[in-house]
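Shape is hard to put into words, and the shape of a protein is harder than most. The fold becomes a row of whole numbers, each drawn from a learned catalogue of backbone shapes. The outcome of that step, for a single protein, is printed below.
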Amino acid sequence: MILMKFTFQLFVKIVIDSVFIRLNSYDFFMIVSKELLEKIKLHHSVDFKKFIENEYFNFYVYTKKMEFSFFTFDNHHILASLQTKNGEFDNKHILCSTKDSLKWGKELFEYCLKDSVLVSEL
């Protein structure tokens, strides 16, 4: 497990780079909070519209209160952004890629998916 610290702008760049490298080879899943979805709509809609058009990019918004800002899951890693104790965006992230963490990530994704809605347009 790696604990990282970076800005929202860098997060978007990492997602863009990761998605473009990995799309068309395997599925990429992302669940975001309602608050983060609003930020994406305001500041990064052009990039995310491209993602949404790709059949391998699966983009969801969590409909309940979420204790993290986003969660991504694919065949090789999970990446999560936790929130501060006050529920605000934190620039610390957790990146995991072990077999056990991928199993846990899949379970977490399936749990969160029950209360998520597919984002098909911005």
